[in-house]
Structure formats: C-alpha cells, structure tokens
Known about the structure:
Elements: H1 15-40, H2 66-95, H3 99-124, E1 129-130, E2 135-136, H4 137-163, H5 165-168, H6 177-202, H7 228-255, H8 262-287, H9 292-316, H10 318-321
Antiparallel strand pairs: 1-2
Amino acid sequence: MASSPPTVRTSLHKPALALFAALGTAWVFVLVMLGAFTTxxxxxxxxxxxxxxxxxxxxxxxxxxxxxFAEHSHRLSAGLMSTVxxxxxxxxxxxxxxxxxxxxxxxxxxxxxVQALVGGLRVLLDHLQVEMVDTSMGRLFAMLHAVxxxxxxxxxxxxxxxxxxxxxxxxxxxxxxxxxxLGVLACTLLFVQLAIAAVMRHSFAGLAIPxxxxxxxxxxxxxxxxxxxxxxxxxxxxxxxxxxxALPWFAFSLRGDRGASPAMRLGAIGLLVLLAxxxxxxxxxxxxxxxxYVTTGHVLVxxxxxATTFWLTWLAHRDVVEGNPVA
Length: 327
C-alpha cells in the first residue's frame, strides 16, 4: 500500500515566481505556432541571414509580407523566450530551496540557447547539400530544431508545475507505479512520433501518401510504391495508431488511480479530447492538401498533447521527484 507523503513546506510557494513561470510556459506555445506556420507556408528561408533579418531587427516590409512576417515574428518571439528563460533561471537560482529545480532551470537556459543556435544553423547552412540523405544541412538542423522544441516545452512545464502551490502542498497517497510507467511510455511514444513528424515535414513528405485513411486510391492500407518519403509518412500513421491505444490506456488508468488528484483526472479527459482533435486535423491535412492553417493547428495540438501527457506524468512522479516514500 502506498504511504502518505509528508507535505512540503508551504513557504516554498512563491506566487509571483509561479505566475512568471506559467506565463513563460504559455508563451512557448505561441513560439511553436509561429514556427509551425512559418514551415507550413515555406517561409523558413525568407531571410538568408541570422541572427538579424536582412541585416536588421526591423527589416523593411516584414509587417506587410506574410512570409517575412511569419519568420521574423518567430525570431522575435524566440528572442523573448530566451530572455524569459534566463530571468526565470536567475530568479530560481536566487530564491529556490530545491537544488534539483535550480539545476533544471539552468538546463532550460542551456537548452533554449542551443535551440537558438540550431535555428540559426538551419538558415546559415541551408546552402550545403547532404547527398547521402538527399537534403540540405539546413533542413537536418530544422528537424533537430523541431525535436528540441518539444524537449524545451517539457522542461518548462516541469519547472512551472514544481513552482505551483498544488505541487508544493500536495498530500495524500502517491500515484501507483504502474500508472507512472504508463505515463513514461506514453511520453516516449509521443516524443518519437513528433520526431518522425519533424523529419516528415522537413522532407516534404506530408502528402507522400495523398489519401486517408487508406494509403492508395483503391482503398488498400499499404502504399503501392515505397521510397523514403512514403516510408516516413507511413511510419507517422502507424505511430498515430499506436498512440490511439497508448494514450487512452494511460488516461483511463490514471483516472482510476486513487492517488490521482481531481486536476489530474480532468487533465486525462483533456488528453483524450486533444487526441481526437489531433486525429481529425491529421485527416484534414490530407483532405485539404496541406492547408497552412490546418497544418499549423496539427503541429500545435501535437505539442499540446505531449505537454498534457508530460504534465500528467510529471504530476504522477511528484513524490518520486521530491524524495517522498512511494509504493
């Protein structure tokens, strides 16, 4: 039987810090949306320089040209995100008692700076062709950029959740080990799926299979002809099917666990809603031939799905993270 962990001292809760962390976490989704829209309309290379845009922080015409607006807004938002992350880490380092949380904040700073550098290399090295994989060096960095974004989201959620009053004042039985393991499995599968999606998007494979749910116009499930683009697209569909089992399994198991809080049970329902929405948007991408707004929504909902799954898993591990006795 799980033992009841002791309550962490409420003096650890700092409302202003918690609010700042929450606002920073919310902003990262604006950044993801702008990045997804930039990629969806093919504007990632509208400026050939970096960190400036056409040699300026305020390039001429960026407010009236949609491609320039998308990319430059993404760059400005990334700069703001970096600043917010550095301020958050400094605030935690000066005021936070938990050493692991201070170290996690420093990791977030390192991650956001690496992410900025990778984004820059995506632009600066796009002219180099990698014959072995038939793509540019810039696009390889674009794939890495997309994957690191998901890791950064999870890191910010971990920090923000640990700063919340609900985390600090948590009491009662711990979430069961089996549910915690299911959460880790769900997060891992989602991360793999988002990595596959990043490769697919930057390999121009979003319509490599132009029909859905079938893979051919004759209604067959397997593609008739195979190449790398078809394969990576089909892998994305297969992983989506796996997640259609894994995420509900985790959600219903969490709702049935006596250690789950009301917020966690509500979050589990939200996760199922996000999953349904993601499936719908994925189908719409094919049916609308990759309409930019649909593709952007699909990327954003995917990030929200990972964020929700990770948040629930992180909450389930709260007592493990804080060093309290668990079953």
